[in-house]
Amino acid sequence: MKTFAPLLLLAATADAHYRFSKLIVNGVQESKEWGYVRQTKNYQSNSGVTDVNSQDMRCFQMRSGTSTASVQAGTKLGFAAESSVTHFGPVSFYMAKVPEGANINTWEASGNVWFKVGEISAPQSGSLGSDERTWPAYNKKTVEFTIPQNIPNGKYLVRVESIALHQAQSAGGAQIYLSCAQVEVSGGGNGTPGPLVAFPGAYNRNDQGLLWSYYPIRTSYKAPGPAVWRG
């Protein structure tokens, strides 16, 4: 039976998709979907992105933005999953500063403008499994990070990304669930966020963080992308 356990897991979770459609500011969740969050292409299917070279890796958006949330540096910001994060894997948060004079509702955030501001991932060592003991975001309805206190004031896109590894035994098998919210930060500082990366471009389909092995059991894991900028 042990030989077939991964196959049974795949069958049980194949249709368990999700989307991030609501922003959470200081613990207060939006009452309706797609207010501060740009509506994504998976608003009906809840499917993920599998091609890391696709333009969908940026915000997966179907429509441009409409509203912008006012937030303070140093406070908690998060996203609510439409059901819950029903696949194991890491969750990362990125931000991109909107240039002065640009319209946040239509800005595409192309090029090297994204920096990582938070990560919910596996422990650095030990036998890694496919449950909540290894993946703290697994089965959670909300995921959050703290906006760096020293981030410069201004308007930003905030990108949440959940990498589902349940079918990632080979390159291209990871499913990436993501969306972008629009915020305006005040009370910040004069930090220099970085390293800056582009979407698409930050990930390679052969990155070890986009692959998973049920057997042999992995003893280390590092999420793809740059280090977290903490200000």
How many domains? The number is 1
- Helix tally equals 2
Percentage of residues in DSSP E strands: 25-35%
**How many angstroms separate the termini?**
49 Å
The helix content, as a percent range, equals under 10%
CATH fold-level topology? Coagulation Factor XIII, Chain A, domain 1
What is the tally of beta strands?
A: 9
Which descriptor suits the 3D outline? globular
Q: Give the biggest beta sheet.
A: 5 strands, mixed
List the secondary-structure elements in sequence, H or E: HEEHEEEEEEE
- CATH C-level label: Mainly Beta
Average pLDDT, all residues: 92
Q: Which regions are unreliable across 5 or more consecutive residues at pLDDT < 50? A: 1-14
What is the second-level CATH architecture? Distorted Sandwich
Structural class: mainly beta
Rounded to the nearest angstrom, the radius of gyration is: 17 Å
Q: How are the strands ordered across the major sheet?
A: 3-9-8-5-6
Signal peptide: 1-16
InterPro entries: AA9, AA9_LPMO
Catalytic activity: [(1->4)-beta-D-glucosyl]n+m + reduced acceptor + O2 = 4-dehydro-beta-D-glucosyl-[(1->4)-beta-D-glucosyl]n-1 + [(1->4)-beta-D-glucosyl]m + acceptor + H2O
Enzyme class: oxidoreductase
How would you describe the overall organization of this protein?
By secondary structure, this protein is mainly beta. It has a single domain (2-210), classed as Coagulation Factor XIII, Chain A, domain 1. Helices cover 6% and strands 26% of the residues. The protein is built from two helices and nine strands; from the N terminus they run αββαβββββββ. The chain has helices at 5-13, 56-59, and strands at residues 20-25, 28-29, 69-72, 76-81, 91-97, 114-120, 142-146, 154-164, 175-186. The strands form two sheets. The protein has a five-stranded mixed sheet. A four-stranded antiparallel sheet has the order 2-1-4-7, with no helix packed on it. β1 and β2 (28-29) form a beta hairpin. The longest helix has 9 residues, at 5-13. It is globular and about 50 Å long. The termini are far apart. Its main location: secreted. One of its GO terms (cellular component) is extracellular region.
